[in-house]
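Thread: Newbie trying to understand structure tokens

Hi all, I'm a second-year student working on a class project, and my supervisor (Dr. K.) asked me to get a predicted structure for one chain before our next meeting. I've only ever worked with sequences, so writing a 3D structure as a token string is new to me. If someone could post the tokens and maybe explain what I'm looking at, I'd be very grateful. Here's the chain:
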Amino acid sequence: MALYPRWAGTDAAAPPRPFHDRFAAGRELAKHLSAYANRSDAIVLGLPRGGVAVAYEVARALNL
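---
Reply by user tm_fold:
Sure, no problem. This is what the structure looks like when written as tokens:
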């Protein structure tokens, strides 16, 4: 069982990234979570290795 995608470690180009960066991903995710904006019972958690940047943008956009 491979731990890396098939293209890892090869000369093949990496697959295209759907977002410019993790902050852009967070802004897009926030659009889909707009029902949770300004709620006192909602929290946003971000895990290290990329999730913190996403969570920051979600929390900022939703005013949490």
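A couple of things are worth pointing out once you decode it. DSSP finds two helices and no strands in the chain. The chain has a mean pLDDT of 85. Feel free to ask follow-ups in this thread.
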